[in-house]
Amino acid sequence: FFCCRVAHVSELAHRLLSPSTHPRFTSRSASFVQVVAAKSVIMAKKGGKKGKAPTVVAKQQKVADDQDSGSVLLALGVLAGLLGLLMNNVHEGFGPMMGARSAAKPFTSFEEFYPFYRSQHQDTTCRMLHVAGTSLVSLVVFATNVRTFIALAIGGCVGFLLCSAFSFMDHGFAEGGLMILAYLLANVYLTRSWKLSFLYLVIGYAFAWVGHFYFEHNKPATFIYPAYSLAGDFTMTARIILGYESF
């Protein structure tokens, strides 16, 4: 404001003291007044920009903070909703897409599946690796972009919906591949990062598969029930951390 007032006064002085108004002033005096007026205008513009920038930046930061907070609440809400549906014994909504259900896939709800999931994780080291991998992924997601929890929930829902459709198969590669694809597309859209999207997968599955192949000595349940196994991993980790289950 001060700089603007100085510019205004300088312009008035330039008009009043110009040689055309007062012939007694020399051209040298007029030039001096013009230079002062020009510098004042430049200072006023710079001062205006400097004074406005912090306000704009602060507003943009507040909007970004609000969006991040909303993303956290939405991510946790979607994830909690998915786990709530699974834990309340929600059964698959439709039958196999072709033929009859495979004998390798007898379970039609997460409640039926979880005791089997626990039976495939008897080794202490294997369970510890599962907890370490799931906890590390969760911490990395919180540290980088919490929107990934939304993508995980979307991928889990896709896998859950397709589990029954592909139940005529002896394996879960079809629904598992589509589940991972849904997660990747959703996470890249939400986070704009392919690298982080693949990093979360590598961290989570690497710990679990090392536990199965080198300590438990069995095949991961993910190969048959990818969606239920993902939910089982988070459920087992949470129950161990809260003390409902032991290593």
Number of strands: 0
> What proportion of the residues is helical, as a percent range?
over 70%
- CA distance, first residue to last residue: 68 Å
Strand % is under 5%
The parts where pLDDT drops under 50 for at least 5 residues are: 1-6, 19-29, 48-52
Largest sheet: none
Mean pLDDT: 77
Kindly provide the radius of gyration, computed on alpha-carbon positions and rounded to a whole number of angstroms.
32 Å
Structural class: mainly alpha
Given the C-alpha coordinates, what overall shape results? globular
Task: List SSEs in N-to-C order.
Answer: HHHHHHHH
Please, could you describe this protein's structure?
This protein has 247 residues and is mainly alpha-helical. The protein is 74% helix and 0% strand. The protein has eight helices and no strands. The longest helix is centred in the first third of the chain and has 61 residues, at 27-87. The radius of gyration is 32 Å and the shape is globular.
